[in-house]
Amino acid sequence: MNSSIKLLLVLLISLEVSFTHSLSANLLLIVCGLIYLIVHKISIKALLFLAVVPLLPALGLFVTIYFYSPGQDLHFALVLFTRMYVYVTVGAGFTMTSNPLALALSLEQNWHLPSKFAYGSLAAFNMLPKIKTAIFTIRTAGLMRGIVLSWWSPQLYFKAILVALNWSENLAQAMISHGFVEDQPRTFYHQIKITMSDYSWLIGILLVIQLPIWLLP
């Protein structure tokens, strides 16, 4: 499926789930999301990470609704608990199986996202490993001077931001030197098109999930 269509599908599912109270639909979406991730050979470690990370906020919602709300509605508490995992599994199904380059190009070509945002987001994504390395280097340099910069130290991230600003200037100059001109028409070596199959998958999946959302409790 086209990456931008997949993003649209995830947003529509998340939006609809936010306004419905079907526990069965939430459980079905979670199971389908897990099956989709397993089919795409996502590691067990990643799946466990997805299960553990949202557990605390999900439990917080459950405890708040079930123990401290006037009605103490168990069904609604379970709906909110599972809704958190719907967001996680559906979102992971998109982020872990989509190519950032294909997504940016599709948004630019098919949804008319400005080129500066498309290439800027790609640049930021590709710089994440370098930023991680820069933070490690800054911490090491601080230790050599007897300064301990913890992970929650504002000074550490202020220095990292200064490094990133320097990179952004170099990146802008590199794009200009390669012929990038803002707000000018561009041609594409690799064209990404949205096919009828993509639209069929989008409409078909949305229609299928309406049944459990509106018919099941």
TrEMBL record:
InterPro entries for this protein: ABC/ECF_trnsptr_transmembrane
Domain of life: Bacteria
Broad class of the protein's primary localization: membrane
Membrane topology: Multi-pass membrane protein
Subcellular location: Membrane
Keywords noted in UniProt: Membrane, Transmembrane, Transmembrane helix
CDD domains (alphabetical): EcfT
Transmembrane segments: 20-39, 46-68, 74-94, 199-216
Keyword set includes Nuclease: no
Transmembrane helix among keywords: yes
Cellular component terms (Gene Ontology): plasma membrane
One Pfam family, short name: CbiQ
Full protein name: ABC transporter permease protein
Originating species: Paucilactobacillus hokkaidonensis JCM 18461
